[in-house]
Amino acid sequence: MIAQITRRVLLAICSSVFLLLLIAGAQAGTAAAA
Fold first, then answer.
1. Handedness of CA 8, 11, 12, 13 (dihedral sign)
2. 3 to 7, 8, 17: CA distances (angstroms)
3. pLDDT tens, residue by residue, 9-30
């Protein structure tokens, strides 16, 4: 039970960090292009 909760929390954190990196990379790319 606890393992499932921690696994879901870790997955949520990793996915949110990945999305933040994608957004930051896109903004940096557009800024560099402009």
1. positive
2. 6, 9, 21
3. 999 999 999 999 999 999 988 8
